[in-house]
Structures are given as C-alpha cells and as structure tokens.
Design goal:
- The complex is a heterodimer of chains A (119) and B (107).
- Chain A is an all-beta fold.
- Chain A contains no helices and eleven strands.
- Chain A is globular and about 40 Å long.
- Chain B has 107 residues and is mainly β.
- In chain B, the strands form two sheets. In chain B, strands 2-10-9-4-5-6 form a six-stranded mixed beta sheet, with no helix packed on it. In chain B, strands 1-3-8-7 form a four-stranded antiparallel beta sheet, with no helix packed on it.
- Chain B is globular, with a radius of gyration of 13 Å.
- Classes of the chains: A mainly beta (119), B mainly beta (107).
C-alpha cells in the first residue's frame, strides 16, 4: 500500500524557516517524480514544487521561488521541502504528492503537515 | 500563466440528480486536465485525468469531457458519499494550476 507521511510542520514566526519531510513507503520511491502541494485554511489547492525521480529537475511556483527548496534522498525514501523567509500567506497544510505517469498529475497524497506563520 | 475557473462555486442537489461542474482554462490546454475530489476533512483524490479517463477504482457515475478551454465533470446520479469539493487542474505545463473548487452538497 502506498503511504506518504509528512512531518516537520509547526508554528514559526514571519521570516523563519522549517524543513518539511515526507516519508514514502509501499512503492519504489526512486522511480517516481514527487511534488509538494499546499492548501491554506479554508482555501483551494496550490501546487508549489516538483522534483524528478533522479533529482535532476526541479520546478517551483512563482509564489515560493527563491524561498523554498525541494530535495529528496532516494536511499531513505524521503522527500523534503526547506521553507525559508516565511510569510503569513505561507500558512497552510503542506501535502507531499506522488507524481502519476503523466507529468503534473498527482495520484497519491499524504495526510499533510500544518505550517502556521504568525508572530 | 493560465488561469482555471470553475463554476459554480457551490451547488446543492438531491440524491440521484445529475450534477455538472464546469472548468474553463484561460488558454487552450488540449486534454491536459485532471479532476480531484476532496471530501470534508480528507485529502484530495485523483478522479479523472486526460480530461475523460477515469482513474482506477473511481465509480462509473463520474465522467469527464472537454478539450481546449472548456471541460466538464459530471456525476450521473449523485450519492451521499459524493459530498465533497471538486477541483480541476491543468497539467500541460508548469505551473500546474488548480481551479478554485466547487463544493457539492446534498439538498
């Protein structure tokens, strides 16, 4: 069974940083592209970052470019998101999502980790 | 960037009703469109990709159609378990943008 488990969220002050993690199991992690998608409280979904299975390609939404960094460790079946220079509008549940065979489609999602940016 | 606009934002229908949700792209995206369902308090679930292909395990009462700029998600006979917010998403190129969502409730 495919499982994705995020961790690392919490309360952080504006301008602060966090490292989000996603532990994957139940599939060959190194064969799949991975993504981060976030959802602000009561709001819709926003794709924010992508990394290819072999780490050679990354992509970011304009809203986080230059502040967030995606990475992965295929030996540890883990996906990461370093979030920095946080703003109030970054408050959201952050989901890791497995890439489908079609680039940009997400077939499995984790339960999410909440990041709250507040002073 | 291409914008995705869904209508209506919310709807209320009776069990057994046929429900249609529309998604419009600000530019043509061929058939690079997916639909997701998010039940209250739950994580999103992939329903349809390539505008009309049902993901494995999704009930056949769900269907999708369209290409270019105009797309629809149809629930042929609404069931209580279909109460959810539905999102369209374009994936022809990054950024992979979602629509704002359509909340479906039972009347």
């Amino acid at each position: 069974e495919v499982q994705l488990a995020e961790s690392g969220g919490g309360l952080v002050q504006p301008g602060g940083s966090l490292r989000l993690s996603c532990a994957a199991s139940g599939f060959t992690f190194s064969s799949y592209n991975m993504n981060w998608v976030r959802q602000a409280p009561g709001m819709g979904l926003e794709w924010i970052s992508y990394i290819s299975n072999d780490r050679t390609t990354t992509s970011y939404a304009d809203s986080v470019k230059g502040r967030f960094t995606i990475s992965r460790d295929n030996a540890k079946n883990s996906l990461y998101l370093q979030v920095s220079s946080l703003r109030d509008e970054d408050t959201a549940v952050y989901y890791c999502a497995r890439g489908f065979f079609l680039l940009g489609v997400f077939d499995y999602w984790g339960q999410g980790t909440l990041v709250t940016v507040s002073s | 960037d291409i914008q995705m606009t869904q209508s209506p934002s919310s709807l209320s229908a009776s069990v057994g009703d046929r429900v249609t949700i529309t998604c419009r792209a600000s530019q043509g995206i061929s058939s690079y469109l997916a639909w997701y369902q998010q039940k209250p308090g739950k994580i999103p679930k992939l329903l349809i990709y390539a505008a009309s292909t049902l993901q494995s395990g999704v009930p056949s009462r769900f269907s999708g159609s369209g290409s270019g700029t105009d797309f629809t998600l149809t629930i042929s006979s609404l069931q209580p378990e279909d109460v959810a917010t539905y999102y369209c998403q374009k994936y022809n190129s990054a950024p992979w943008t979602f629509g704002q969502g359509t909340k479906v409730e039972i009347k």
